[in-house]
From TrEMBL:
PROSITE patterns: MR_MLE_2 (PS00909). Residues 168-262 form the Mandelate racemase/muconate lactonizing enzyme C-terminal domain. InterPro entries: Enolase-like_C_sf (IPR036849), Enolase-like_N (IPR029017), Enolase_C-like (IPR029065), Mandel_Rmase/mucon_lact_enz_CS (IPR018110), Mandelate_racemase_C (IPR013342), Mandelate_racemase_N_dom (IPR013341), RHMD-like (IPR046945). Keywords: Magnesium, Metal-binding. This is L-alanine-DL-glutamate epimerase-like enolase superfamily enzyme. It comes from the Bacteria. Gene3D superfamilies: Enolase-like C-terminal domain, Enolase-like, N-terminal domain.
Length: 394
């Protein structure tokens, strides 16, 4: 089941918008320190941006998820140029949400033929976000407002994510001084190490700080139940991806019944029916689609609406550069409801240079303002030292 294209009056152009060009840009910046997860280490920070322009010269920006495998950024950019361009260049739409089902229908056979549904979904997600940015800019509205957000305003609650298992309290304390009030620790490195890290973070940040943990699919059901039991004393707001994303809903439900913890997940789901399964699981409290991995803005706003309607928290996942982060924040502002947007705590020049002006955190919140579209634009010249030349292949 694909996300439906919204056809309300919000965001419908007076005349169809024709796309005249699509470009992709690849960047790599050193990861200092490397980003550690239970399944691998990121030694650099990649980013793939997509830019679309219409016949009037207006432009929109999107970002394609590309953290893994390490060679994935260049590959995804080539896919975007070879297959993304024919999907959109010369095409016209009256609403950005109309493009996703068109793109998906045209790439379905290629997904089956290549076995690369993930990268192809990701290039569609980046293009979809760029189209939404373009349409919102043309309308002169911030994306959160263009999507119909109004009740919660433009303030988005954020948390510092990606906190590594090596001296995590040092980075957490630094982020607290920057204005963060919520923090997520990477776990799955052995229960003794995980517990010791949580203890140091709680001692450093105090009882008032909001703490979450992310296992990155590290555990079996039995391991998750055992590990979760050791984490109960730290007042955690949620336990993220304790199981593999492919685990049946019955396992997630059984784990929720066994542990008095909110369970979070969804960043590695790539099907609306599967999101519906997640949302329906009792105890699956936090739903976390990734705007650069699947669905773009079209899919993620639909997941957000279904999740919030069911009483779940919608908390966008993001661990990349600045365009995807801005899109995640606009989605959260549009969806409203309780929850947070993830902001990587580690240094990443691509987050800042590729989304100007940068974000400012004040007492745990970011305000998006009234600038049209995503409200940010990449500074390609400033990021030139990190640019990677990608040879287009026929």
């Amino acid at each position: 089941m694909m996300p439906r294209a919204h056809t309300t009056d919000i965001g419908v152009a007076d005349q169809p918008v024709r796309i005249d060009s699509l470009d992709a840009f690849v960047f790599r910046a050193p990861a200092v320190p490397p980003v550690q997860t239970s399944f691998g280490i990121m030694h650099d920070r990649p980013a793939v941006l997509v830019r679309v322009r219409d016949r009037d010269g207006a432009e929109g920006w999107g970002e394609i998820w590309c953290n893994f495998p390490t060679v994935g950024a260049e590959h995804r950019a080539r896919l975007a140029l070879a297959y993304g361009r024919p999907l959109v260049v010369g095409k016209s739409w009256s609403h950005p949400g109309q493009a996703w089902p068109d793109m998906h229908a045209r790439l379905q056979v290629l997904m089956l033929q290549t076995g690369e549904a993930g990268p192809l979904h990701q290039l569609m997600a980046g293009i979809d976000t760029a189209l939404w940015d373009l349409f919102a800019r043309r309308a002169g509205k911030p994306l959160w407002q263009y999507l119909g957000g109004d009740g919660g305003g433009d303030a988005v609650q954020v948390y510092a994510s990606g906190i590594n298992p090596t001296e995590p309290e040092v980075l957490a304390a630094a982020k607290a001084r920057e204005g963060y009030r919520a923090f997520k620790l990477k776990v799955g490195f052995g229960i003794e190490r995980d517990v010791a890290n949580l203890r140091r973070m709680r001692e450093t940040l105090g009882d008032e700080a909001t703490l979450m943990v992310d296992a990155n699919q590290a555990w079996s059901f039995e391991e998750a139940r055992e590990a979760g039991g050791h984490l109960l004393d730290f007042g955690l707001t949620w336990l993220e991806e304790p199981l593999r994303a492919s685990a049946p809903p019955s396992q997630w439900q059984a784990l929720a019944q066994a542990l008095p913890l909110r369970l979070a997940g969804g960043e590695n789901v790539s099907d609306m029916a599967r999101y519906d399964d997640f949302i329906a699981v009792p105890g699956m409290s936090v739903i976390q689609p990734d705007v650069g991995k699947w669905g773009g803005v079209t899919g993620c706003i639909e997941v957000a609406r279904r999740a919030t309607a069911a009483g779940r928290w919608y908390c966008p996942h993001w661990l990349g550069a600045g365009i995807g982060l801005a899109a995640s924040m606009h989605l959260k502002a549009a969806a409203g409801g309780p929850g947070y947007v993830e902001v990587d705590a580690n240094p990443n020049p691509l987050r800042d240079l590729l989304a100007q002006p940068g974000l400012r955190v004040e007492d745990g919140y970011v305000r998006l303002g009234q600038a049209p579209g995503l409200g940010v634009t990449p500074d390609l010249e400033a990021a030139r030292e990190f640019a990677v030349r990608v040879v287009e292949l026929g």
